[in-house]
């Protein structure tokens, strides 16, 4: 048996520095959001929180329809997350463990589509959304993002490394259908990878600003990023108000990470093991 090596003190120092550098922007945003706007112009840096956070929160909800924006963003990001995990997992399993004509060529097309800049499809996609009558509705943001080439590639690699071909063949010999084999053999093995994909997809959909700004009405169906841009607009920028909105907008992402973060560690560990 191999002996596990214990990390030295310098490892903890480096990790502490990395964690501190990662958390500091969030802490600084909260510190600014808990002050009034006049404190930002002070010479001394803002390091300690003040006592105006809840007052600034009230001003955010009075200035913009933040509840509606949070609800819309949760619907969009949640639907896109679930759809990407399900469809990408099924497609990734098919590309990794099923045999059908043109499998490799079709996978090259899917992987190659990830190299096409998204900006090239804005105009034709906008025309399609307008023809379907989805302009100003959440379907215009949800449907184009239901599945992604990155998600298919990610889950295909996960199935290649985590799902044993021998187990799939054994389940097939025992008479299990493709869906039953996928559910009982593949899903338990790729669960951590699917959780990582869920976090990445949710974060991308939650932070998307350009496409919702193009196809949604900011007054009728705003998202969080759109209302944050409204807080930052105008001749006079209220930094306390803007960073209070940013602090509120990042809370759902932090909650999701706390719920699924352990799967990220498992995915990294399995990647090292399979590598």
Automatic annotation (TrEMBL):
A Gene Ontology biological process term: transmembrane transport
Keyword Cell membrane belongs to the record: yes
Write one Pfam family the protein is assigned to.
Answer: BPD_transp_1
Q: Where in the cell is it found?
A: Cell membrane
Q: Which residues cross the membrane?
A: 7-28, 66-94, 106-128, 134-154, 185-206, 239-260
Q: Which GO terms describe its cellular component?
A: plasma membrane
Report how it sits in the membrane: Multi-pass membrane protein
- Which terms are listed as keywords in the entry? Cell membrane, Membrane, Transmembrane, Transmembrane helix, Transport
Matching entries from SUPFAM superfamilies are given as: MetI-like (SSF161098)
ABC transmembrane type-1 domain spans which residues? 70-260
UniProt lists the family membership as follows: Belongs to the binding-protein-dependent transport system permease family.
Indicate what this protein is called per its UniProt record.
Cellobiose transport system permease protein
Q: To which species is this protein native?
A: Amycolatopsis jiangsuensis
């Amino acid at each position: 048996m191999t002996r596990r090596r214990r990390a030295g003190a310098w490892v903890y120092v480096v990790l502490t520095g990395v964690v501190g550098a990662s958390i500091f922007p969030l802490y600084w945003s909260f510190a600014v959001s808990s002050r009034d706007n006049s404190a930002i112009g002070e010479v001394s840096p803002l390091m300690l929180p003040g006592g105006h956070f809840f007052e600034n929160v009230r001003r955010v909800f009075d200035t913009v329809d933040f509840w509606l924006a949070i609800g819309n963003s949760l619907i969009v990001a949640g639907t896109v997350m679930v759809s990407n995990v399900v469809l990408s997992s099924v497609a990734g399993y098919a590309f990794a463990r099923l045999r059908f004509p043109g499998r490799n060529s079709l996978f090259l097309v899917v992987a190659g589509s990830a190299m096409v800049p998204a900006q090239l499809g804005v105009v034709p996609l906008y025309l399609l959304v307008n023809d379907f009558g989805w302009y100003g509705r959440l379907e215009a943001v949800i449907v184009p993002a239901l599945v992604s080439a990155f998600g298919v590639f990610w889950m295909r690699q996960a199935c290649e490394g985590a799902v044993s071909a021998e187990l799939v063949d054994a389940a097939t010999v025992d008479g299990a259908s493709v869906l039953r084999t996928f559910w009982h053999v593949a899903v338990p093995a790729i669960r951590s990878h699917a959780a990582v994909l869920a976090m990445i997809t949710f974060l991308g959909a939650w932070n998307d600003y350009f496409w919702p700004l193009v196809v949604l009405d900011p007054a009728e169906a705003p998202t969080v990023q759109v209302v944050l841009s409204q807080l930052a607009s105008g001749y006079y920028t209220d930094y306390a108000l803007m960073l209070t909105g940013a602090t509120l907008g990042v809370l759902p992402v932090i909650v999701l990470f706390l719920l699924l973060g352990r799967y990220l560690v498992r995915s990294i560990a399995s990647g090292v093991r399979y590598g």
